[in-house]
Amino acid sequence: MVKGANVGLTTLSEDVGSVMVSLGWSSTTGEGDADVSVLLLDGDGKVRSDVDFCFYNNPVAGNGSVQLLGKTPTADGSEDRISFDLDAVPQEIEKVVVAASRYAGSRFGDLDDLRLTLADSAGDGLVRFAVEGADDVSAVIFGELYRRSGEWKFRAVGQGYASGLAGLATDYGVDIDDDAEQEGPERDGPEQEGPQQEGPEQEGPGKDGPEPPARVPAQTRGSDPAGLAAPAAPRAAAEPEPADPAPVPKPARRPRTAKKKVTLPRTAKKSLADNDTWRTARLFPVSALKSDRERETRATSVVLSVMAQVPEFGRRLTAGFGAPAGRMETFTEVTLPHGESPRRPDGVVRVERAGKLWTALVETKTNGNALKPDQVQAYMDIAARRGYEAVITLSNDVALEGSPLVDVRIDRRRKHKVALWHLSWAEVVHQAQMLIRHEGVGNAAHAWLLQELLQYLQHENSGCHGFQNMGAAWVPVRRGIDDETLCRGDARALEVIENWERLVRQVCLRLGGELGQKVLPVQRARRGSDPGVRRAELADHLCEQGRLSAEIRIEGTPGVLAITADLRTGKLRTSIEVPAAEPGYPLSRAKRLVRRLSEAPADLHIETLVGGEGAGPRGTLERLRPEPADILPKDGAQITGFRLSLFKGMGNGRGSAETGFIRSVDEAVDRFHAQVVAHLEAPVP
Fold first, then answer.
1. pLDDT tens for residues 264-318?
2. Which of 49, 448, 462, 71 is nearest to 285 (CA)?
3. Cα 468 from Cα 563, distance rounded (Å)
4. Do residues 547 and 566 touch, judged by C-beta distance below 8 A?
5. CA 455 to CA 277: how far, in whole Å?
6. Dihedral sign, CA of 173, 174, 177, 183?
7. 167 vs 170, 205, 227, CA distance in Å?
8. Cβ(13)–Cβ(19) under 8 Å?
9. CB–CB of 117/24 below 8 Å?
10. SS3 of 505, please?
């Protein structure tokens, strides 16, 4: 689509009761990012109250009809996904605005390939809109979903706001408290006009509706990632104020949500047990699990039961699959006819909304067992014949873009489409952690249920531990690297690269759930957008250099965390490059860096980064603590930053046992983040 164009969704697909909107971008450095927000507007083009403003700290709006699903990595960056149950959007809402914003002085000109895509409930792409001309703005309206004659339509907007999310939000009736000096909003676009409402007989952007009034934006950020202090209900008519009132500082406020959410503390209360041999009674015990079949049956029942009882959790897991926001019921061991031999999927999820049913069959695997293509194919055929909407596979494996876990045959002649989705146990754990530790749920009972679920999934007997095996090619590839017989184009190297990518994604899920922050693998744009080509290049690099490498971006940290596994030397290196701010003498910078790392390990390697092609001095923290000046370039070269690195022995086994490679990567990342990165929340001054 082009800017200003609009289209009716029902003309593109029959499955548009629920749609998925994705906002994406890429960055050559891998560090660029933005925050997504959604505003639900009434007939006057304003939010009804703060609950109609959906953003990072209020991820659900419109009675659950709009939900931010978070970021997911793509071949060349990341994209933010938003689930819309259009049938459940409140009738008072006439328009839904989809936007994104940057912060801390960043502009969208630093990002590449700004785009919006819209898919139907089966996952088929319907709309793609590339946003251009947003170089100098910090907030952009990507598009709008709006009602017209009882039908939902989409308009490609591409409108920029130089005043950021605060300026955009206030234009639509959201109150912003600002401690900084107040300035009028500044917007780009034709003749500096704001977004216009569609006229009664006008399909494209027009000027029939009133332009949103100019409101006062907030420019402060503090601990608020979007620079937004707090949304509130639309303002009433302003009362006369005395001239030149004395300025009264306003305390910083957090964005409100519809009601108080319940979270659980990370540390448990002191136990009342007599001794350590007493075990806490668990809602979902795992002590009797002995076989893979028992693990699969128990895990399926446990997860589906909690999904039905905790609405926030069930909605979080199914919204990305095109399910509506409605009453959910779940079932296990359901028998369905299939030729001469009936099939029994592990579970069924049904969601009812306004008399309509959405149904998904669930196939579960635990303990690292692989999905069986013939089983999944049979469930796809059954779902198609019975008019079900989806088949969901749930296993320890992590799906990769462009590399399906199971190849199934889809009969395109069928009018009814069935979507095949995959969910990793690591993703289930991540969502449970985010809800009970960071975002909150509706009541304490729901929080307790999620806590019991988390205890079950993380128990060693559950079999739900996520990706735990580097595959059959791991040992031959390591041997081939040791004796230098591994050649370019070897299919086994490509298998190792795919499993390495799965491991890195799982590390991001685990760390993000523990921290409550966005943690994503970095894909630099220059590596290309085709995942198959990119992985083939990385496999050739592995054959030549004997190294696996990855980068992780953690929200709130000054740089990208790099992981390098050198299969020749058997060492893991975790590192981060910290930029050096301009003001201050070089010796003062070095002293402040060493002082900030007072709790870091003595074997931390510090390397000074200098301008040009030269290399700066390096040394361990133990040696630099008494003599910080040793890290300064002797030739007076300009310091651009510091590289901090820790080295650790690498596990040899392909699994996650104590001596396994997977566990060694987890431990290396955890140690580096806790002992180094956590002390670098801001760039070194």
1. 877 777 878 878 788 788 888 887 777 888 999 999 999 999 999 999 999 999 9
2. 462
3. 18
4. yes
5. 18
6. negative
7. 5, 21, 10
8. no
9. yes
10. helix
